[in-house]
Structure formats: C-alpha cells, structure tokens
Amino acid sequence: MRYLLLLACCVNADDLWLRNGHVWTADAQRPWVESVLIRGNTIAAAGNDREIARQAKGARVIDLKGRLAMPGFNDAHLHFLNGSLGLSQIDLNGICTLEAMQKEIAAFAAKHPDEQWLQGRGWEYLCFPQGRLPAKADLDKAVKERPVFLAAYDGHTAWVNSKALELAGVDKDSKFAGFGEIVRDPRTGEPTGALKEGAMGLVRRLIPEPDRAQKIKALETGLRLAASLGITSAQNANGTLDELELYEDLQSRGKLTVRTSVAMSVGPMDSEATLVDYANLRRKYSSPLLRVGAIKIMMDGVIESYTAAMLEPYTNNKATSGKAAWTPEQFARTAAIADRLGLQIYTHAIGDRAVRMALDGYEAAQKATGAVDARHRIEHIETIHPADLTRFAALGVLPSMQPIHADPSGIEVWSACIGPERTRMGFAWRSIEKAGGRLVFSSDWPASISVNPIRGIHSAVNRRTITGLPPQGWIPEERVSLETALRAYTINAAFGAREENRKGAIRAGLLADLVVLSQDLFKIPAMDIHKTAVDITIFDGRVIHQR
Fold first, then answer.
1. Helical axes 272-284 vs 328-341, angle rounded to 10°
2. Which CATH number goes with the domain that contains 65?
3. How many domains does the chain divide into?
C-alpha cells in the first residue's frame, strides 16, 4: 500500500496553482511574485494571485499560506552514485573522537556479519590525536578479521586496517609512483594504514563492485533523499558509461526525479579519440532529464593531506608544496581539444597553484581556438592568489565552489597547513564575486559532511558552523548575501550547465521545478537558516515530496 501511495503522489494529473505565497523567482526582471501556475511540466505563468486566478480555473490549488517558494535546488557538483551507495555503509560524519568511531565501526560490523568488506566514509582529519592521520592499529581494535576501507569526508584519503593491507599485498617494500602516497611509519617504513589519493586504489581495487541491481536500489534511495531536500537538478562531477546506463534505466521507467548531467572523467593520458567519443554522447544524452556535455579533470588533491598544488611550500610541511596531476602542456592541449569539440570542462583545483594552472590552460586554449562562451569551470578553489581573482570574469570561467567545505570544525587543520596569510584567501566567495565571478554552489557529496543545500546556504551566508562557532581565524568578510547564495544554487547553477534557458528560475516557459520551505529565509535570523526544512518539492510539474 505504501508503494502505491508513493506512485499516486507522482502522477502528472491536474495543473497546479501555487497561490498566496512569498515566491522568490531568481528572475531579475521580476524577483518576487505571489502565484505560480504549472501546466504539465512547465511554468505557465508567475505573478500576483489576481493575475493568475483568471488563468488557473480547474487547476489543483496549493495554498502556500505565505510560505517561501523558490526554484528547486541545483547541486552543481556531486557524485550521486557514490553518495547513494554510501547511504548503506559506515557513516562517521559528525563523530569526532577515536573511541566513538571505533564503537560505531564495531557496531556496524556486528550488524552486518555477512559483509565481505566493510566500507564507509566521513572521518575528519582533526579527530585523531596530535593531528596525526588515522592508523591501521586504531582500526584493528574495532575490526581485525575482515578488511575495512574508510574514506575521509573529502574522499581524498583512506583509512584501512591490517587485513585490508594484507589482502592488497601492501607492505614496507611496496612502491607507488602515481599521484598520491602510501603513508609510512618514519622509523620502520611499514604502511600506517593511511593511503592518499591514487594510492587508495591499491586497496580499493579488491573491493567487490556492487552489481547493477544494488546500484539501482542505491540510486532510488538517493533520489528519495534528494527529493526530501529539494534537489531537483544535479551535475555529476565524474562519470562512466556504466553509470550513464543506470540513469537511463531510471529515466525509462519514470523514476529519475533529479535532472542529471554527467561530466565524463578524463585523465592526462587519455587520447583525443576519447574526448571525441564523449562529445558524441551528446546526441544520445541531451534530454531535459539526462545530459552529457562536459568532462572532469583532477588537477590536484586536498590541503589536509598536502596533495593540493600550492605556489609555496606548506606552512607545517616545508618539504612539499603539493603536486599537480597534470603538466601545464597536457592540460592546455586537452582544453583546446575540448574547445574544438564544444565540451565544457570541470577542473578540480584546490591549491592556489592548481587554480592558476587551470586558468592559464583555459586562457591558452581560448587563444588557440577562439572559443566563445565555453563556460569552463574550476571546482573547489579552496585557495587562490589575489592576482587571479579577476581572471574568472575576464576569461568567462565559472568558480564552482562548495560552501559546506568551510563548515567542518576541522578547518583548523586546513588552516595550519597553509598558515594565516593564505588562510585569508581561503574559500574566498565574496572576493571572487566582487571581482566579477559568477558563483556556482554545490555540496561535493559524498565528499562533504552534508548534501543538504540548506546547510550549504547557511555556511555561505554565515561563515559559521550550525553551533554558531566560527572556526579559528576564519574570515567573515568572505560571507555572501542570502540572494547570492540562492542564485548560486539555482539560476547560476543552471548557467553553469548551459541550461539557464530551460530551468533555474520561476518564469513562464521554464521547467516546473520548485520547492516550498518551512521558514522564509528572507525573514528569519541568518543563524536559523540551517533549521529550515523542505515542505514540498515539485519536480517536472509533479509533487514528489511533501513533508
């Protein structure tokens, strides 16, 4: 019966008239209205109640009772399949003592005796004694006989136990020459149980791949979560052909309730033919529900593990300034090919040197090809040199950032790595905006503490955690206005996917994706933003969630 009721709520039957509301449209021409009329999957009209009433005869009425309605949230950078699979794994988010983590891991293991491998994520760097990385001995105390693989909250470092290292054949004699590191005990040379970046694959390759049915089930769970959070569009910052087929399956059965675009993953050794193949996918995947039109590049790692590429050495590790995964020549060549093929590029760049390399490569490609309005993006931009702030507007490059990454209490670990001078340019949302950059916001789920857009908005507007405590040394001048944050999660995110003429605002002719919130964000104290829930989610003209 519960299943039948769920289907009934999503049937595209009558037109909808949302009236008596406080509706923020994200449309600069008319930012506020009272009423929205939806016909089929399209917004037919938006205006005041009196205007719309004449057109809305016979429509099903949803009385907003003064509540705030707005365009559906567009998470412009996440990894939806991985996040969905993680919903049934060990969750260490919000657990910040070693003892509590060990207890959670042991409890999960006891509840899942048949799991061959135990997987999970969410641990934060600052939660281990003396600021050290986690160790296999810590994990062995929780689970010793079965292999365990736990990713950090940012997804760039793994914590594994002795059994996992044994099965992978990783010992003091093991070599790894790729992007990343087997962390070793400086006295013995033995692996400690921490693996950075590409070295995670030494163990991860042994973990059995979920079968198709498990992936579909996970995605359906993830879609229900997205609906409850008002997420109606998502831009996947990595992708494979197999993953595309999963979304295609859901679409064919009417179950894809998030408009999904996929950036296909590209490495420095991939050929031009690979990019041509990805460009050709646009013919097959170009619907309002499922699109391909971009590639994803990993330029560097993360600051906490010293794998982000910095212009100067790390403050607390002078031996390194990080390492870029691409050479400037490789990146510029790939960017030029992408420009000729009309492919957008999402480039992960966290360190200030990686950000500069991405900007330089985009500029070189632009000069070589004459490309106009390529809308290439740089993802994350956790640090930036002040000289590069104006280059986003000058080059038409989009700063795609994740405010939720500035929320973890572990920001002190982050700041200690680069020192106070560079911290002042950390997560520089407002500085980039003032320099003319068009901000695009997202969660990076599951490499974040929350996929909830409300949490991201709270962080962007307050530059504080939900407990009200600012991280040490944090820069309040980098806060943005509420409207800036909302635009970054709606119309700017649509612009960042070349879809602003299709969605992202409440305006006649655009797709009918809207949310109704439990609190009016424009009328409450900013520190109460995180308490807001999504009362109603409308996707493609259908009510798919009602709290």
1. 30
2. 2.30.40.10
3. 2
